[in-house]
Inverse folding.
């Protein structure tokens, strides 16, 4: 069955005009303040490709970027475009846009008194956070593949699982580099607090990337994350997700245990599997979790290496 048999996509007409000329001076100033602050905080914290994207797309030329200009520049680099939407679009539309290399963004910007926290993503989160990474060809392909995978997840009723992959990579992903741990997720790079906390707080766990683990890990939307997943490279992210058929995974994971964000798999896979079974049998709600106490330690690597790098 095709996704299109199930959903009535009204895809094209959800775009709105960004109306770039109607932003006020105060609104442009909010962008500039956030831009300056994040550029400073993210030094040695964001992945170098994030900065490359910022520079290539001239996102710091001053004021809220004009999506028409930005799209033209981004299209020339990786074939992606940015379009404004008024608020939430349906899951189907969101995935379908991604699969067509269209990134949808809010046009509104937070008020000066909301610099630090807001519930809904605004144009600063969407553009400053997400768009620089779309200038990286590997990440650009990953986002498109994710959109295609998203459409497919709807057919399996597995949207909530695939959403976790977006959350723990596109929004809150960390990456290991020769210079140390860096952030690439937009939820991190657009947030002053999370930029520091995600990399440096001893209260957060940081596990090596594992697709299956991520699909089973819940997330919180209203606070700093309790746990993060660390990729080795963008190639790893693209290849692992592209080369895995999620269909059987959705089926087998449907009855497998789920995890809290700061539960970490610190034992070898075999012992872990036995633990799962014991946990199911005695219906133990929480196997005591072991938190990372040194800030750049990545747990779960052993488990990942043995079981997921085929
Ligand atoms: N290979 C995935 C599938 O079979 C598609 C996908 C690619 C999903 C990239 C997420 C990210 O569904
Ligand atoms: Co986002």
């Amino acid at each position: 069955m095709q996704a299109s048999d199930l959903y009535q996509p009204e895809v094209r007409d959800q775009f709105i005009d960004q109306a770039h000329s109607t932003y006020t001076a105060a609104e442009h100033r909010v962008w500039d303040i956030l831009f300056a602050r994040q550029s400073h905080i993210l030094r040695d914290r964001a992945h170098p490709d994030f900065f490359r994207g910022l520079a290539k797309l001239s996102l710091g030329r001053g004021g809220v970027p004009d999506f028409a200009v930005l799209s033209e520049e981004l299209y020339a680099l990786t074939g992606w475009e940015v379009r404004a939407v008024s608020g939430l679009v349906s899951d189907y539309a969101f995935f379908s846009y991604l699969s067509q290399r269209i990134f949808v963004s809010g046009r509104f910007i937070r008020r000066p008194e909301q610099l630090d926290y807001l519930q809904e993503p605004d144009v600063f989160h969407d553009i400053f956070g997400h768009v620089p990474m779309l200038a990286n060809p590997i990440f650009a392909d990953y986002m498109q593949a994710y959109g295609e995978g998203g459409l497919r997840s709807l057919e399996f009723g597995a949207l909530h699982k695939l959403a976790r992959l977006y959350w723990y990579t596109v929004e809150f992903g960390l990456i290991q580099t020769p210079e140390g741990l860096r952030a690439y997720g937009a939820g991190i790079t657009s947030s002053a607090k999370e930029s520091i906390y995600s990399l440096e707080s001893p209260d957060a766990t940081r596990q090596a990337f594992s697709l299956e683990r991520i699909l089973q890990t819940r997330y919180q939307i209203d606070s700093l994350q309790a746990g993060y997943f660390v990729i080795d490279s963008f190639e790893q992210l693209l290849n692992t997700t592209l080369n895995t058929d999620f269909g059987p995974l959705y089926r087998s994971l449907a009855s497998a245990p789920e995890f809290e964000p700061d539960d970490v798999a610190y034992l070898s896979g075999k012992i872990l599997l036995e633990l799962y079974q014991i946990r199911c049998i005695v219906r133990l709600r929480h196997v005591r979790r072991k938190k990372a106490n040194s800030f750049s330690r990545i747990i779960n690597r052993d488990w990942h290496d043995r079981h997921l790098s085929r």
About this structure: Confidence is low (pLDDT under 50) at residues 1-8, 282-310. The pocket of cobalt (II) ion (ligand 2) is lined by residues 121, 125, 129-130, 171, 186 (CB under 6 Å).
